[in-house]
Structures are given as structure tokens and as C-alpha cells.
Amino acid sequence: MTVLSITEAGRTAIIVVVLGLALAAVSCGGDDDGAPGASPTVTNDSQASPVETPAGSPGGPEECTVSEEQIGLVSKVDFEQEGEFSQGGQFTAGAEVKAQMRLINCTEEDTTLFYTSTKRYEMVVEPEDGSSEVFRSSEGKTFAQTEGTEVIAPQGTVVYEEIWDQTGKDGDQVPPGIYKVSFLSVGCGVEDVDDCPPFGVIARIEILE
Fold first, then answer.
1. Does the pTM of the predicted model rise above 0.90?
2. What is the pLDDT of residue 136?
3. Helix, strand, coil % over all residues of the chain, rounded to 5
């Protein structure tokens, strides 16, 4: 996994490139618009997650290898293929694309994320060529404008999952090609902040003929 500040590291048009984004303190954000994603699953060393996660989770040495200046939340995205989550990303046309993002607390203290609504994440799918987005997870959903928090224990993980059926906003199957998947948390590390940019992971998948 590559750990970076909150910037996309290049745009490599290969099957999948997963970019881990690290937060210096707990960068965070999101707005109230749109609808929620599913509530996350919180895990720690003493509680097994009902959501299957890749080896090394939660907070394993490989995923928490970040510099002292960058230590904090690390985000990672994987895609389910043949019943297992991995960084792989070739999908046959019409196949379900199930993505999973994990927020890993690599610190020795609890990390609290604050939310201005029941929305917890946003997943957006766009063609690699930069044309209009074909999927946004919050579109067509409604969320309660209720404030909330999520506490991630030291070495703990929060897991979010979303499914895209490969249809565009017109309801038709999208054409084959490379697609950029942005999976973002809308939590904020500071309470009562109106403008808090979302953070998360940008990955690429390929839809086959």
C-alpha cells in the first residue's frame, strides 16, 4: 500500500492502482448533501469484524508503516472477486463491483470522527478519460440531518462497503474501459467544522468487453 498525503499519486492507466491516503492528524470532511452510505463496522483487537477483510487487518504492520509526521488514519480500498477482497480489479461486463474501504487507526489513542448527518461515506465512479461520473453512492438516497460520531480504537479499523452494478446514470451498462473509483469518508476530525474536505482512496478498475 502506498501512503501519501491527500493527493492522488499519478494517473496510471493500468488495471488497478490503489493509492492509500494518510492523514497528518485526522484530516476529514464532507457535507450534508446527498444520502448516507451504510453504517460502518468497527473492529479492534478484541472484536472480530462480521465483514471479511484482507489479511493483515486491522492495523497490521504493513498497513501502518507510515512516517512519524504522517501517522494517523490510513485508508485503503479493496474489491471483492471470487469471494475475497484484494486490490485486483478486472470485472466482466454486468458483474457486481463490490468495494470496501477501511480506515485504520495507526495511533495509540482513540480517534473520533464527527458527522453532520447520518451519511458516512461517498463512492464515485468516473471513466478514466475524465468524462462525466457514472455512479455516486448517495444519489437518490435521503439522509437524516442528525449529528453523530464514530470512535476508532488504537489499531482499530472502520469498514465501509458499497456495490456498483455497472450501470450509468442513464440506467444502461457502461462501456468497457478503465474507471476511477473514489471512496471517501465524510467524517471530520474536529467538531463543528462547516467546510471539511472528504478524504479517502482513489483506485482504478477495468470493465472488460
1. no
2. 97
3. 0, 40, 60
